[in-house]
Amino acid sequence: MGAGHDHHHAAVSNAAHRHSGRLWAAFALLSTLMVVEAVTALRTGSLALLSDAGHMFTDVLGIGMALAAVAATRRADTDPQRTFGLYRLEVLAALANAALLSGVAVYVLVEAVRRFGDPPEVLAGPVLVVATLGLLANVAAFALLRPGARESINLRGAYLEVLADLLGSLGVIGAALLIALTDWWWADPLVAVAIGTFILPRTWRLGRAAVRILVQAAPEHLQVTAVYDRLAAVPGVAGVHDLHVWTLTSGMEVASAHLTVTSDADVGAVLTVARSALREEFQIEHATLQVEPRADPGDCGAVEW
Hints:
It is a single chain. With 305 residues, this protein is mostly helical. It folds into two domains: 5-214, Up-down Bundle (Alpha-lytic protease prodomain-like), CATH 1.20.1510.10; 224-298, Alpha-Beta Plaits (2-Layer Sandwich), CATH 3.30.70. Helices cover 67% and strands 10% of the residues. It has nine helices and three strands. Strands 1-2-3 form a three-stranded mixed beta sheet. The longest helix has 30 residues, at 47-76. The protein is elongated and about 85 Å long. It is found in: Membrane. Belongs to the cation diffusion facilitator (CDF) transporter (TC 2.A.4) family. SLC30A subfamily. InterPro entries: Cation_efflux, Cation_efflux_CTD, Cation_efflux_CTD_sf, Cation_efflux_TM, Cation_efflux_TMD_sf, CDF/SLC30A. Residues 23-215 form the Cation efflux protein transmembrane domain. One of its GO terms (molecular function) is zinc ion transmembrane transporter activity.
């Protein structure tokens, strides 16, 4: 097992825990505004505001799942049966987040198209006030989540949702102003469609990233052939087989490989150089490397996947 595993395990765990305070603050803020927006949307008949409230609901749900994943990871750190912790929970949460947000976007698009035939009147004043409050809440949540968005796919999911919701609030404000000034009721479903079409591509990208991790595909930024060539170039290595590279969770790349070495190779030196190369050149901190004498690779009992 790679020498840097325990250190990296703690680093990833601490990265998630470090942002839990920001998550709680964003969760409380957006929960309050979500209720206000939903109630106002139902009373004013604004589909745009309702879509924004629905989107904010997925923000709240996504952040709640992120908090649950952080708590579960903290508990799993003390369970010897969970040798990799529960890091995959945040990936599952991100996938569920993407699915829910896609559902909201599709509903808004369908409802908006239905309303184009006969757009209902909308009370622009209350919509404008509440949408402005929603914008301020999203700006605050955006600032709270931004530091952790680069470290965790789950936090990135919540961050992207808040970013989209921030732009959605701007759209709702624009629609409310347009309705108040011109009585052009089509502005409301048009903004709802704009919000829906803005959301979908981003959620699909998030879902694709989560699925890629769950099926244990190699990270997109890393070429497996390059890893193979680098390991094969380590002095004393005669061959490389059973090489696997995958992502455990955000920022934690994992590799395993069998290294066939020459009869005069220094096994300790081979492992040191190989692990150093993986860590420094490919940012793979956790590597399980099996060293074997030069022989037919089939003799080691390797499983070809």
